[in-house]
Amino acid sequence: MGKAREAARLQRDLYSVKKTAMTRKPIRTLDDIFAWSYPEPNTGCWLWGRSSADNRNYTVPKAWVKDRTVSVPRLAWTLAHGNAGKQHVLHKCDVSICVNPDHMYLGTHQDNMRDMKARKRARRFPREKAEAIREDFASGTLITHMIKKHGASYYNILKALRKEI
Fold first, then answer.
1. pTM, whole model, 2 decimals?
2. What is the extent of the structural domain holding 37?
3. Strand partners, 37
4. pLDDT digit string (tens) for 49-89?
5. Does residue 73 share a domain with residue 146?
6. What is the DSSP string of 9-59?
7. CB burial class (10 A; 0-12, 13-18, 19+) of residue 147?
């Protein structure tokens, strides 16, 4: 997550410089994608410099192509290697705004979930912890004490008590 936040910050800083130098033009080739990205010299990532959508704290680069919004990493893969079909386009570099097709590979949803767990990007609240929070609440433990005991935020404590987790 640290890499992604740092990359997003760098993207914002660099975009303000580049947006005045570039005109808006449709994306038709891999060179067009490269023109709107910023090469990161240490990792080889191409950091996307246009719009992005934040999807549950995971920033997804987006672009308009033929009257619809598309995922830029998927578009980069398609332009470089051909249609991915129903496969997911996954990142090797773990930087969500990277659009370098050399940093991507194809996989299934299950591959993506396995990769997410292996890289410790899973944000799921453990069911056992939610049950322990409910038990503590039933026994009269204060929420402030549960926050310290379970290392959970106030918001997640409330979600656990409402059985939303």
1. 0.58
2. 2-118
3. 48
4. 876 665 555 677 888 777 778 888 898 998 899 998 999 99
5. no
6. HHHHHHHHHHTTT-------SHHHHHHTEEE-TTT--EEE-S-EEEETTEE
7. middle
